[in-house]
């Protein structure tokens, strides 16, 4: 029984980082399911588990410094994304999403203030400017929501067998939210404002889209083309929302 096996390993002084069910972890190289990441023989002796499919360590990043993992994630390496999404318990996607939306709303609010010639310090004017920021946050949230909806609809339409369970949707949503971390670069792009700021913002947007594509590819184990196809339709729906706001006379 599992209890007898566990007691036997305890008697040998060996601890295994394993989940109750097979498939709790993923091999970062071939994406195959794995029952454990490593075994701890105590006294600082660890042995990485070997994937039965590709015969490579299930997750080499266990021994890596977090800074190295972050650099590999910035480089959009699939192995780093699999490590973060499947083999760690990171639960900051909600907070990260809100903070990224605040950054985007702040950028839009600054651009709106730059285009306004009214410098009246009246309290009513300051109150209106404050609500402009809240409005930009709401618009940015709706645009991102429509972008994600476009992605989900496209993937569900083209690969209906991959998004059958609620857990699949949650995992993909978590991956998309985490992959928007590139928007954090918007703040330093504005702080170090110069003549090339619009170009920097365009590169940041491209980087976020590349991260989104890699997150979709890693989560659903797809080729490189289908994620970009889904992102393309997501952008179409997002731009449709932008056009709707513009027809309503809102500055976006």
TrEMBL record:
Predominant subcellular localization, coarse grouping: endoplasmic reticulum
The entry's keywords: Endoplasmic reticulum, Lipid metabolism, Lipid transport, Membrane, Transmembrane, Transmembrane helix, Transport
Any one biological process term the GO annotation gives: sphingolipid metabolic process
Keyword Hydrolase: no
Function recorded in the entry: Mediator of sterol homeostasis involved in sterol uptake, trafficking and distribution into membranes.
Family stated for the protein in its record: Belongs to the ARV1 family.
Protein name: Protein ARV
Organism encoding this protein: Calyptomena viridis
Originating gene: Arv1
């Amino acid at each position: 029984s599992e209890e007898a096996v566990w007691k036997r390993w305890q008697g040998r002084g060996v601890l295994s980082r394993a989940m109750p069910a097979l498939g709790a972890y993923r091999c970062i190289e071939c994406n195959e399911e794995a029952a454990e990441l490593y075994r701890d023989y105590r006294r600082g002796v660890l042995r990485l588990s070997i994937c039965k499919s590709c015969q490579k360590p299930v997750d080499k990043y266990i021994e890596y410094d977090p800074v190295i993992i972050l650099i590999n994630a910035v480089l959009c390496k699939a192995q780093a994304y699999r490590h973060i999404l499947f083999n760690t318990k990171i639960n900051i996607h909600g907070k990260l999403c809100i903070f990224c939306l605040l950054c985007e709303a702040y950028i839009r609010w600054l651009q709106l203030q730059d285009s306004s010639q009214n410098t009246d310090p009246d309290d009513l004017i300051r109150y209106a400017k404050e609500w402009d920021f809240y409005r930009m946050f709401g618009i940015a949230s709706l645009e991102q929501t429509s972008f994600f909806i476009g992605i989900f609809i496209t993937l569900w339409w083209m690969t209906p067998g991959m998004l059958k369970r609620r857990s699949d949707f949650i995992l993909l949503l978590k991956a998309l939210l985490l992959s928007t971390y590139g928007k954090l670069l918007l703040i330093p792009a504005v702080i170090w404002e110069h003549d090339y700021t619009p170009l920097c913002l365009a590169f940041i947007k491209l980087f976020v889209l590349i991260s989104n594509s890699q997150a979709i590819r890693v989560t659903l184990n797809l080729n490189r083309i289908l994620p970009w196809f889904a992102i393309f339709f997501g952008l179409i729906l997002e731009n449709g929302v932008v056009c709707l706001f513009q027809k309503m006379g809102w500055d976006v």
